[in-house]
Structures are given as structure tokens and as C-alpha cells.
Write a structure and sequence with these properties.
- The chain is an alpha/beta fold and about 110 residues long.
- The protein contains 4 helices and 5 strands; from the N terminus they run E-H-E-H-E-H-E-H-E.
- The chain has one domain: Response regulator (Rossmann fold, 3-Layer(aba) Sandwich), CATH 3.40.50.
- Helix content is about 40%, strand content about 25%.
- It has a 5-stranded parallel β-sheet with strand order 2-1-3-4-5, with helices on both faces.
- Helix 3 links the parallel strand 3 and strand 4.
Amino acid sequence: MKDLRVLIVEDEGPLASLLSQAFDNEGAVVSLASDGLDCMSKVADFKPHVIVMDIMMPRLDGIDTTRLIRRREGFGQVVIIALSAAATWTRRKACWPRERICTWRSPS
């Protein structure tokens, strides 16, 4: 994973730290954002290859943040992995494949 840039967008500090450490241990360059607005302020400068995105966050949720990222020129092919404690089949269908993201259930 050398030189892979991963942006982790997660409002729960312990989970953000765990994800960051896991990617860092594999040699990725990691940046953290605490919510969708923070993500949008970092995405252009950091230019991530992969975004790990929490779905349920304050201020700007992961679904709307993903839509904004997809509208930005040059970010249509960024891999976005959605995490949510509420990753039901209905919720997953609501955002994939239209937004081209995968969803994983985060630990509760």
C-alpha cells in the first residue's frame, strides 16, 4: 500500500484511530476528517485514492458528502467505502451503485 492515500471520515474517535492505525501499518498515507464538512475541506488538497466514509455523521452525512465528492472534477473514480452501524440492505441500496460505493457494517 505504499503511497496509497486514504482519507478516513469518521466522527467516532476510537474507530477513526483504529482505522488510521490499520492503514498506517500497511504503509498508507492517512488523513482524518471528523465529518463531511471536514472531509470536503481536505479532499482537494489530500487527493485520496480511497475514502473510508461513515454514513451517519453530524453536520454533513456520508451520503451527501459522497454526492458532493462525485460532482467534483477528477474525483469520480475515487474508491469510497461506506461504514455505518445502520448498514441495512435498504440503506445500502439507497447509495450503491448509484454513488459507486461499497458499504460495510461498522462494529457496534
